[in-house]
């Protein structure tokens, strides 16, 4: 279960293109699409921004480039967020940070039908491009979509479906989009990620755990456009003497709450949960002193706690040392979830059986884990790269205090004399 959570968090920023299905033709919605075709300029270029969906993979939204050719007539949607769900190497590539995505081309009705079926909004923005720029974009996308050119190594923040659309547009306007977005960003990469995954809680926690300090540095508006919604806002700007977006309309409206503008403030709640967990585990240790039978649930809880935290810590070490997930490197949350806590799985059995040696060793490992959490607190003084993990510290600090105190109390009663 924990592996599923962490693996999902490591890849949920993927803009995923799902298998399409038959969808009815749509009448052109709104006056933007009812503009009569221009015989001298038959091409029209739209950026499509799809809102978040229910599945964890779809929480960040998606986008694509739609090109309408009045001469053909044709409506092609160029989608950089495609990968194989049935790939035999999918999980290994996911975990290793070496997953390949590609540019696919789909008919417009299929795309609209798919996102309408998933109750996901679609905003279209028509770009004010010259005939030459439109022709250049279509030619570049067609070349990019060829089998020998379409693959690219996906990066959740730096090279995804949104940044590929952003860069394609920016090249057409001589980097004018980039120059317009050099101001400071509104949030950090972590803040954007957490506001988009505020619910369900397990997804929020898993993502917060796997992200390291690289996502807590200040960024500019250009970098914020890794999110489709931020790109849609960024496109509506002046580039030289023209407004890049000449018009926009929502062609599919989703019946779902809007996404949060900032991540939820959860330090107080996490602190309360940490205190509750810590007190509960300490109470079990206190009860184990007075009843031999109470040692059994206490030992089981110590073992389960060690399994959960030790596995998480070991996974974070793996993500740092053996994968290409740069955003997971140098993760200070390893100090909150000590990998050596896995030993509590075995030692918890000894605690349950009333073996003083097992209790002594379990206490020593818990005390070391508590010291690691305290080190994470000290690191907030700023002598290493800042990592925004206050809510997680608020939970793990009292929880580890409870585990350590419970084992200390039991060990103290087991000492001879």
Draw up the topology in text:
Blueprint: H1 2-11, E1 43-50, E2 62-69, E3 74-82, H2 90-96, E4 100-107, H3 108-117, E5 122-127, H4 131-144, E6 151-153, H5 161-172, H6 176-180, H7 189-196, H8 201-210, H9 221-224, H10 228-235, E7 238-239, E8 242-243, E9 245-252, H11 267-290, H12 295-322, H13 344-352, H14 356-378, H15 390-414
Antiparallel strand pairs: 1-2, 1-5, 2-3, 3-4, 4-6, 5-9, 7-8
Helix pairs in contact: 1-8, 11-12, 11-15, 12-13, 13-14, 14-15
Question: Please, could you describe this protein's structure?
Answer:
With 417 residues, the chain is an alpha+beta fold. It has two domains: 2-252, no CATH class; 267-414. 47% of the residues lie in helices and 13% in strands. A hairpin with a 4-residue loop joins strand 2 (62-69) and strand 3 (74-82). Helix 1 (2-11) crosses helix 8 (201-210) and helix 13 packs across helix 14 (356-378). It is elongated, with a radius of gyration of 26 Å.
Number of helices: 15
Strand percentage: 5-15%
Binned, the helix content reads 40-55%
SSE arrangement, N to C: HEEEHEHEHEHHHHHHEEEHHHHH
- Global Rg: 26 Å
Number of structurally distinct domains: 2
Number of DSSP-assigned strands: 9
The strands making up the biggest β-sheet line up spatially as 6-4-3-2-1-5-9
Summarize the biggest pleated sheet. 7 strands, antiparallel
Shape: elongated
Distance between the termini: 44 Å
Structural class: alpha+beta
User: Average pLDDT across residues?
Assistant: 88
Residue runs with pLDDT of under 50 for 5 or more positions: 1-29
